[in-house]
Amino acid sequence: MTGETDYLIKARLPNLKAMSEFLMHRLMSVPGVGSIKTSVVVEEIECAPGLINATLSDSRS
């Protein structure tokens, strides 16, 4: 990747409330994160191999 993007995170979340929770309370609380740019996929053609399916509660354990 080149340009303004430092990291690309793919996250599969169940709804917009969960996305907001992840972005505002988890990701923005990471030291060094100053801004976030999001893109939402409205339809998936094929699932990328190796994409981890986890819930927010799983990642807090």
UniProtKB/TrEMBL annotation:
Superkingdom as given in the UniProt entry: Bacteria
Domain Transcription regulator AsnC/Lrp ligand binding positions: 1-44
InterPro entries the UniProt entry points to: Dimeric_a/b-barrel, Tscrpt_reg_AsnC/Lrp_C
SUPFAM superfamilies on file: Dimeric alpha+beta barrel
Name the UniProt record assigns to this protein: Transcription regulator AsnC/Lrp ligand binding domain-containing protein
Lineage: Bacteria, Pseudomonadati, Pseudomonadota, Gammaproteobacteria, Chromatiales
